[in-house]
Amino acid sequence: RSSPDVFESRMEKRNEVKKQPVGYSNQGEFIRCMEQKARPIFSAEGLGTKTSKGRFTKDKTLDSILNIEMVKEKSAEEIRQIWSQYFSTKDTVYAVIPAEKFDLIWKRAQKCPSFLYALPRKEGYEFFVGQWSGTELHFTSLINIQTQGETAPSQLVLYHYPELQEEKGIVLMTAEMDSKFLVVHEAQCLANQVQLFYATDRSETYELVETFNHRSSEFKYMSVIAELEQSGLGRELRPGQVSDKS
């Protein structure tokens, strides 16, 4: 009422967003600045710590979570059990990824750093864009990108730690999420899809990632939903560990 002109311009902008195709996104523009950082084997201070402004931990190192010196003499299976047992009690997503599988994911992420993921909702799907930044994978909803552009905040970050990859043959992963937008089983569904699309042996599945990155005009968002439904991911969203489906 006090500023009808401002209201009108905002409504025009909103209508413009609604007219954009569902698959629309400005590749890589949404991820920018993250803020701040936060020994038994695990460090309580390094786990899922967020800043007072609710943003994610900056430079979240493996050493801030795990006492690397204490696990150096342990086998890969023992480390897997330690990691899994610890994080199974936490409200987060985690995984122990075989080195070969992560090698494939990492190689493909260099060529195709972003992708559109579909999160099943009660009615239909909500789309999220995942963007790699080093070994971190940041997600934010497509609507955030459409409305906020490069200032759109991350709502989920997957942290991958390759420090033990060469010696132990495993890569450790954990996550932080904005609980105002996502719960654990939803974050897990997105994390599982990273392996579905980036670690697949099925050329047609990975081709969707290539198309999204290099031939965006040919990309069909319904193909993502078709792959997701075919894989079975999303039918049963359970909290806890990321599956090894690929």
TL;DR of this structure?
By secondary structure, the protein is of the alpha+beta class. It is 38% helix and 17% strand.
Task: Tag the structure with descriptive keywords.
globular; 6-stranded antiparallel beta sheet; 246 residues; transit peptide; alpha+beta; 17% strand
What's the helix and strand layout?
Blueprint: H1 4-19, H2 68-71, H3 76-87, E1 94-98, H4 99-111, E2 114-120, E3 125-133, E4 136-141, H5 142-148, E5 156-161, H6 165-168, E6 170-177, H7 184-198, H8 203-214, H9 221-231
Antiparallel strand pairs: 1-6, 2-3, 3-4, 4-5, 5-6
Characterization of this structure:
The protein is an alpha+beta fold. It has one domain. It has helices at residues 4-19, 68-71, 76-87, 99-111, 142-148, 165-168, 184-198, 203-214, 221-231; strands spanning 94-98, 114-120, 125-133, 136-141, 156-161, 170-177. A six-stranded antiparallel β-sheet has the order 1-6-5-4-3-2, with helices on both faces. A hairpin with a 2-residue loop joins strand 3 and strand 4 (136-141). The protein is globular. Residues 16-54 and 236-241 have low confidence and may be disordered.
